[in-house]
Recover the amino acids of this structure.
């Protein structure tokens, strides 16, 4: 008999009901658990997040020398923790959805990809030894529709998610079986037409915020 490992995400039925929203599960893959979720953000929340982030975007820089890297060619920014009422409301919803206390949440990140920009294959967890308080789960929320390209692709699973405004992909990588975690390798494929905006929430194993 095959054993199914315990997951962080814990919901029965075809939707997740949070305090302020009903979130349908559109598709699901087990082991590693990957969920495609509809209606995580309203269209007006998507637009407002883009507006708030727009003049705070910085080209991705990696490492101590702050060399602009080709690994991730998009721009990004982080909101302050619960920086306004809307961000706070979204963070609360995400924490309910991901079944992890908000105190374990990293700041909400916004990423913007222009045509040709991409995020090469990576793990969201840190792979160096002796990492304390590693990441355990991810929610990538799509803030707009992308005309062509920009899929979130899981190369080891040969699985792609097409960005759709208000929808999200959830995955977790806190399995005892290291191979399952490694299957969550993913990338943001190059945007071919249009632009792509996403909001990413990473959760930590232990408390991360001072709240
Ligand atoms: O842009 C995407 O589709 C993926 C983003 C991502 O992998 C991340 O923010 O960690
Ligand atoms: Fe990622």
């Amino acid at each position: 008999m095959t054993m199914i490992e315990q997951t962080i995400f814990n919901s029965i039925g075809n939707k997740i009901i949070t305090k302020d929203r009903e979130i349908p599960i559109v598709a699901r893959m087990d082991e590693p658990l990957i969920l495609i979720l509809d209606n995580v953000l309203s269209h007006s929340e998507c637009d407002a997040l883009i507006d708030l982030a727009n003049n705070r975007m910085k080209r991705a820089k990696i490492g101590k020398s702050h060399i602009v890297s080709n690994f991730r060619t998009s721009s990004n920014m982080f909101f302050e923790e619960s920086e306004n009422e809307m961000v706070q409301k979204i963070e609360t919803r995400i924490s309910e959805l991901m079944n992890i206390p908000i105190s374990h949440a990293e700041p909400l990140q916004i990423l913007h990809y222009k045509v040709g920009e991409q995020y090469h294959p990576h793990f969201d967890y840190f792979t160096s030894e002796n990492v304390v308080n590693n990441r355990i789960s991810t929610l990538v929320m799509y803030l707009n529709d992308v005309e062509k390209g920009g899929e979130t692709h899981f190369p080891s699973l040969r699985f792609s998610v097409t960005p759709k405004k208000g929808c999200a992909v959830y995955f977790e990588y806190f399995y005892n079986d290291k191979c399952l975690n490694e299957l969550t390798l993913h990338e943001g494929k190059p945007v071919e037409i249009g632009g792509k905006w996403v909001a990413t929430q990473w959760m930590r194993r232990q408390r991360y915020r001072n709240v």
